């Protein structure tokens, strides 16, 4: 069945890109990688999403690498054993430090359920549920994230054709639905460690993520 692709939102403009700080962020674990951080205004919600831009990837003629990374305080900052979010972020930072690219850092903790609810879900996972079952037990759908604002951010940067860094088919589908052309999908590695094997297996079996687990 043919599905008509949504056209870019005509209300989106480069004026949505508000403040661009040209600073040496030195992002990434034990790294010395320069990047810029950009804030936005006029997005769909009041969430404070930001773009992290490597090697001026939004202003070159190349089709940039882009990763939509949903905030994960427990994984990104505290290196939780329950997920692979921090490792995926570090892998992407290293890749973009070499090749250039854009990370859209989205404030969507716990696939959209929020930090406190995610901690509740952790408790249920400790009782044997997988990550999706735990969210469902708390009354939430599998994934509450809406990537409309990610598309708005890219359009505000005048970026509508990308190489998307993801293992998640939902992200590919949703960006295409909002007028972003994806010319290539670049998978991240499977970051298997003590504590996250069931989480990764659930991503594959339930979320249909493209992960190669040995």
TrEMBL record:
EC number: 3.5.4.25
Cellular component terms per the entry's GO annotation: cytosol
Occurrences of domain GTP cyclohydrolase II (ranges): 34-186
Reactions catalysed: GTP + 4 H2O = 2,5-diamino-6-hydroxy-4-(5-phosphoribosylamino)-pyrimidine + formate + 2 phosphate + 3 H(+)
Cited function: Catalyzes the conversion of GTP to 2,5-diamino-6-ribosylamino-4(3H)-pyrimidinone 5'-phosphate (DARP), formate and pyrophosphate.
NCBIfam families: PRK00393.1 (NF001591)
Protein name as annotated: GTP cyclohydrolase-2
Origin species: Vibrio eleionomae
